[in-house]
Write a structure and sequence with these properties.
Catalytic activity: a quinone + NADPH + H(+) = a quinol + NADP(+); a (3R)-hydroxyacyl-[ACP] + NADP(+) = a 3-oxoacyl-[ACP] + NADPH + H(+)
GO biological process, one term: protein homotetramerization
Strand order of the largest sheet: 3-2-1-4-5-6-7
CATH class: Alpha Beta
Number of strands: 7
CATH architecture: 3-Layer(aba) Sandwich
CATH topology: Rossmann fold
Largest sheet: 7 strands, parallel
Protein name: 3-oxoacyl-[acyl-carrier-protein] reductase
Structural class: alpha/beta
EC number: 1.1.1.100, 1.6.5.10
Number of domains: 1
Family: Belongs to the short-chain dehydrogenases/reductases (SDR) family.
Length: 237
């Protein structure tokens, strides 16, 4: 059976690094992002046989249509990586309600909807693997990121519960929780200030997190697990 993986948020950052690794290992990739041109560029970099799709993960109809298109052009999806995410960092009292909703819809509801669509297909195949990209702040919290932390903490609870629901169908669900990684989300952070809390004294790179994602995606006896990739981070400031 062909190894078909949908990478939501695969046009940049950690998602793009995951896609590159999987392409090297012989997977057929569906690169999914809101911006179709960026998704096409990322898919094009992987070589032949990989396709790009546009999708708003917070809209169930979009998600369902995208899965139908992926199955039509690539085959049934048996691997899923949820790397799409947004952040609107601010103290809670200054956070606009629309920014709360945006983060919860993309970071949590979006992953729920893609998992729901994927699991339906995986149950028919009696196999599958899902890795959701969380965050260390979903485990430890962080000042100025209360809503983002909540969305990622919710993703952990959701993933652990889903893992128990679908294990009998030989479907695995795990989470990778990165610390501070060089991506668009962290480009404005004061790196030197934050390094004092990281024993390895540096930010991570997307490819380093990608290796952890692929490890969980392929590990046949690991489910309901949260793998923290944070350089030994001791305290989030």
């Amino acid at each position: 059976m062909a190894k078909v993986c949908a990478v939501f948020g695969g046009s940049r950052g950690i998602g793009r690094a995951v896609a590159r690794l999987l392409a090297q290992k012989g997977y057929r990739l569906a690169i999914v992002a809101r911006n179709l041109e960026m998704a096409k560029a990322a898919a094009g970099d992987l070589g032949d046989g990989h396709l790009a799709f546009s999708c708003d993960v917070a809209k169930e109809h979009d998600v369902q249509s995208t899965f139908e298109e992926m199955e039509k052009h690539l085959g049934r999806v048996n691997f899923l990586v949820n790397a799409a995410g947004v952040n609107r960092d601010s103290l809670l009292v200054r956070t606009k309600t629309e920014d709360m909703i945006s983060q919860l819809h993309t970071n949590l509801l979006g992953s729920m909807l893609t998992c729901k669509a994927a699991v339906k297909t995986m149950i028919q195949q009696q196999q599958g693997s899902i890795v959701n990209i969380g965050s260390v702040v979903g485990l430890k919290g962080n000042s100025g990121q209360s809503v983002y932390s909540a969305s990622k903490a919710g993703l952990v609870g959701f993933s652990r519960a889903l893992a128990k629901e679908v294990a009998r169908k030989k479907i695995r669900v795990n989470v990778v929780a990165p610390g501070f990684v060089h991506t668009d989300m962290t480009k404005d952070l004061k790196e030197e200030h934050l390094k004092k809390n990281i024993p390895l004294q540096r930010f991570g790179e997307p490819i380093e997190v990608a290796h952890a994602v692929v490890f969980l995606l392929e590990s046949p006896y690991i489910t309901g697990h949260v793998l923290v990739v944070d350089g030994g981070l001791q305290l989030v400031m």
